[in-house]
Sequence to fold (426 residues):
Amino acid sequence: MIRTIYGANIRRGEVFPETEETTDVSGIVSEIIENVRKNGDAALKEYTKKFDKAELESLIVTQEEIEEAFHEVEENYIRILKTARDNIENYHKRQIRSSYIISEEKGIVLGQKVIPMERVGLYVPGGTAAYPSTVLMNSVPAKLAGVSELVMVTPPMKNGKVNPIILAAAKIGGVDTVIKTGGAQAVAALAYGTESVPRVDKIVGPGNVFVQEAKKQVFGKVAIDMIAGPSEILIVADGTCDARIVAADMLSQAEHDRNSSAVLITTSEDLAKGVTAELERQIPLLPRAEIARESIDKNGRILIARGIEEAIDAANEIAPEHLELCLDNPFDFLDSIKNAGSVFLGKNCPEPLGDYYAGTNHVLPTLGTARFSSPLSVDDFVKKTSFTYYTAEALDAVAEDIAYFAEQEGLSAHARSAMARKTYRD
Fold:
């Protein structure tokens, strides 16, 4: 049963317990990465046969396979995927940055170039699981940023094919290449390249503990988006809320994973009791009841706050991945939210709106990292380069200052470089 705590003035660790890794997979992952580096496609096929029970002649998904899968998916789902894609695009296109130039007087020009990454790898879980939302949430901002080539890796089903709805989402999202491989080996292939998998500049997308560990180990060789922890939801609600709805929203995240966390902060003891009862009623009705049960029992919390302001303070301390403000006047408190991955405002805004449809990104910081991290955005798929131009006259005017600055740091060659042009001209 969910635990109730009186008083919301507590630290994150008391609400969202830090997940303990029970298995150290670093050694296994390191061996997989080295095998892929040495043996390329052969290693990928070997691992696909071992882990996915699929024997492959080719790792690359053909255009014919994509078209076939697209026509297998029911038309209504295609319509929904396209609408979600449009919503995601409409939201993210406002994040597109432009290069800029600052032209100053006296012969000085400064500026910044915004340059899309050339090739990005997208990891999408596959096999029996299917997350087309992950495809859209990553591919749409990447393409808006101007990424030239988006390479998706995903494990095949036992028949050697990729789940049709994953391929349909890839087509709708503008993915350029799809590779039938998953796990740590797929991350290694993206980082180092194989005969079939091109080496990428950045790897994005969720995965299991092996995928996350592989992303850690290849970081530096390539960029990565983030190391995501178990899903989290925190709901701030007053006594006017419906316990049935609050419980349903909590379970929307509890069903993700046994280590997921669902927390309610409320000013109403009656609501707290009602939600507790509703959780007990609703959990057995879920297909993933066993997972939700363990998540709620282990990580579920209800906090009783003395007021909404105290609840908001606790939310900022916790810095949750998803924050629902189930209040009649949520905009009154929006400016007070300092730490949250994504905020859902009002009583008609369940978290799945963000997961699938509204347009905001569902790739969000977890484990309290919303204190310093942001949702996935167009910015994650570009890099910035600065540039500087000085005329001879402009440099001469400041050369002695630069040289003096350099000498204070003990870097005389820097000083000589700053003065060289003026010295040789004189």
Q: What stands out?
A: The chain has 17 helices and 14 strands. Residues 75-92 form the longest helix (18 residues).
